[in-house]
């Protein structure tokens, strides 16, 4: 076994371990945001278009907050901004639960607040990972990170699904009250995560220009991958909840379906993160994209409860496999180009988010357009398949990117 294959927690600094622990605690919040906020909207509106509008508002808030964060970092400690991002997720849910009816204004407002939360969280988290890890440890970092996320994706949906169906009166008002209790729990976890994170020591990005519009040709390949990744993100967060609520009408079934796939995904991620090398990233990325395509294909072909279960099962395995390959590729490109172009690393993080946003906007608008001009069922059935096919183009782009990246590394040597 090679030295790289034996990478473990000992290879991380104390601050990196604290960041991992913080993300583990916050991972108990993410399934609630990803799954049950969407199911809450579906339960109280029975309109998939409203779920997608809420998601579009989130995606709009993220790049705006990324941009603002670049300026805030010059005057505010990164710890505070990262913590604020986690806390705002609870604020958004409280706002959502306080709405007397699920109207468009309320959805957009709640979505923008959640977008601010994600913007502060992910902008600073991406930089913190970039600053505290090296290329050789990133497969293990993201393997461990996705293992924790998929582990909580097993525990949280089952507990919340059971609680919503059995912990209250089995009426809409009773279940809505259960959602409010879940929201309070979210606040508790975000506070704990924020406190733990403050035990680490982290340097802020350099106080330099971070807004650029022209980049190295290698970065243009990275942006193409970001756009295609964004296409899928326009769906994969809310699609499982919409489909489960449509065919099963039960948060309990939603929680169980999420957990079955997550059990397998958690074990796979831990092994892949520990034993794969940087040279395996293209293969992992390709496998993840093919699984995503198969998930959308079975959903489109069957469009029934069996199809939904297959879709969720394959998607739960595809997402972390994609992450364990995609994020290390992205950070390695930033490592190389920030040195070549002598730019602040955050400038690449911000620009990457803009690429994601364009893809998310196109993906969400594809769904909304089909739902508006035809109907929501056709959108649920075929929009995902369209995105799944387009996503396969990323395999070709990733191969070209990694080839160019190797050339640049060899030139440096």
From TrEMBL:
Q: Which InterPro entries match?
A: MFS (IPR011701), MFS_trans_sf (IPR036259), Sugar_transport-like (IPR052528)
How far does the signal peptide extend, from start to end residue?
none
Show the stretches that span the lipid bilayer: 20-41, 53-74, 81-98, 104-123, 144-165, 177-201, 222-243, 255-275, 282-302, 308-333, 354-374, 380-398
Sorted keywords for this record are: Membrane, Transmembrane, Transmembrane helix
Domain of life of the native organism: Bacteria
Q: Does the keyword Nucleus apply?
A: no
Q: Which PANTHER family match?
A: INTEGRAL MEMBRANE TRANSPORT PROTEIN-RELATED, MAJOR FACILITATOR SUPERFAMILY (MFS) PROFILE DOMAIN-CONTAINING PROTEIN
Question: Which named protein is this?
Answer: MFS transporter
Q: Identify the species of origin.
A: Gillisia lutea
């Amino acid at each position: 076994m090679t030295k790289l294959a034996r990478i473990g927690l000992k290879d991380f600094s104390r601050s990196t371990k604290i960041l991992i622990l913080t993300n583990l605690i916050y991972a108990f919040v993410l399934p609630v945001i990803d799954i049950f906020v969407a199911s809450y909207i579906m339960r109280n509106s029975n309109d998939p278009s409203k779920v997608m509008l809420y998601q579009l508002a989130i995606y709009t808030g993220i790049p705006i907050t990324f941009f603002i964060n670049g300026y805030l970092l010059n005057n505010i400690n990164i710890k505070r901004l990262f913590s604020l991002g986690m806390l705002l997720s609870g604020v958004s849910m409280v706002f959502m639960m306080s709405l007397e009816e699920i109207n468009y204004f309320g959805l957009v407002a709640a979505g923008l607040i959640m977008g601010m939360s994600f913007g502060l969280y992910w902008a600073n988290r991406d930089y913190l990972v970039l600053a505290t890890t090296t290329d050789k440890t990133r497969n293990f970092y993201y393997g461990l990170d996705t293992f924790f996320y998929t582990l909580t994706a097993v525990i949280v949906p089952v507990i919340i699904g059971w609680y919503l169906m059995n912990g209250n009166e089995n009426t809409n008002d009773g279940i809505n009250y259960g959602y409010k209790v879940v929201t309070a729990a979210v606040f508790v976890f975000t506070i704990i995560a924020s406190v733990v994170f403050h035990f680490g020591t982290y340097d802020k990005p350099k106080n330099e220009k971070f807004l650029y519009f022209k980049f190295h040709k290698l970065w243009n390949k990275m942006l193409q991958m970001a756009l295609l990744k964004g296409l899928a993100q326009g769906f994969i967060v809310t699609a499982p909840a919409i489909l489960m609520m449509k065919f099963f009408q039960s948060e309990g079934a939603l929680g169980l379906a999420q957990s079955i796939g997550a059990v397998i995904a958690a074990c796979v991620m831990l092994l892949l993160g520990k034993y794969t090398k940087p040279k395996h990233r293209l293969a992992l990325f390709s496998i993840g994209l093919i699984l995503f395509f198969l998930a959308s294909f079975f959903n489109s072909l069957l469009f029934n409860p069996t199809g939904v279960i297959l879709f969720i099962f394959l998607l739960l395995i595809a997402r972390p496999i994609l992450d364990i390959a995609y994020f290390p590729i992205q950070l390695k490109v930033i490592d190389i180009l920030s040195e070549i172009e002598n730019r602040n690393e955050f400038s690449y993080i911000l620009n990457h988010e803009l690429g994601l946003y364009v893809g998310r906007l196109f993906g969400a608008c594809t769904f909304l357009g089909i739902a508006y001009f035809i109907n929501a069922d056709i959108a649920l059935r075929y929009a995902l398949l369209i995105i799944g096919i387009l996503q396969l183009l990323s395999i070709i782009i990733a191969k070209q990117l990694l080839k160019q990246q190797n050339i640049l590394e060899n030139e440096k040597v």
